[in-house]
Amino acid sequence: MIRLTTPISEEAARSLKVGDTVEISGYILCGRDAVLPKVLKMIEDGTVSDLGVDLHGQVIFHTAVSPAGVGPTSSNKLEIENSIAPLSAAGIKLHLGKGALKPETVAALDRYNAVYAVIPPVTALLGKKTLEQRVLAFPELGMEALHLIRVEGYPAIIGAARGRSIYD
């Protein structure tokens, strides 16, 4: 088990390979198809610093945050998968979700020294490992707003790294 703490360094991201099991601790972003295009717009507009979180070394979990907890959504939804390359270019090192990604997305992860990890759909387990949560931006989206959560020991399996995918 590889223990990762946010922010994730370039060296730590570079050392991960497909099939590695990891536990993630620290602050991570949560967003899915409703909010990720808004974050991309902030990157394009040069206003992403308004979030108050440095994206470099950050983790983004493809999920909504609700009173029931958090659980992965499909990362291959159009708006989510299309956000992976630009978010990686902006500094995100680890994308958490579920499902196979397109080969071009896997290649983009490699190009930006970022990785994708599959997180099991275990909402009850993750709820006990989520220590804090707050809305960071776009509160009008409710549970699909951009959230920042603090976690301890989130389990995941590296599903795409160094140009390879666990789904190949």
Task: Kindly summarize this structure in a few lines.
Helix content is 26%, strand content 30%. By secondary structure, it is α/β, with parallel strands linked by helices.
What does this molecule look like?
The chain is an alpha/beta fold and 168 residues long. It has a single domain (2-165), classed as Fe-S hydro-lyase, tartrate dehydratase beta-type, catalytic domain (fumarase). Helices cover 26% and strands 30% of the residues. A hairpin with a 2-residue loop joins strand 7 (146-161) and strand 8. Helix 2 runs parallel beside helix 3 (78-89). The longest helix has 12 residues, at 78-89. The model has no long low-confidence stretch (mean pLDDT 94).
Q: What keywords describe this structure?
A:
8 strands, 168 residues, fumarase, 5 helices, alpha/beta
Strand and helix map with partners:
Blueprint: E1 2-5, H1 10-15, E2 21-30, H2 36-45, E3 59-61, H3 78-89, E4 94-97, H4 103-111, E5 115-118, H5 123-128, E6 130-137, E7 146-161, E8 164-165
Parallel strand pairs: 1-2, 2-3, 3-4, 4-5
Antiparallel strand pairs: 2-7, 5-7, 6-7, 7-8
Helix pairs in contact: 2-3
The largest pleated sheet is described as: 5 strands, mixed, barrel
Q: If strands are numbered along the chain, what order do they take across the biggest sheet?
A: 2-3-4-5-7
Number of helices: 5
**Helix amount, in percent?**
25-40%
Q: Note the beta-strand portion.
A: 25-35%
Whole-angstrom Rg: 14 Å
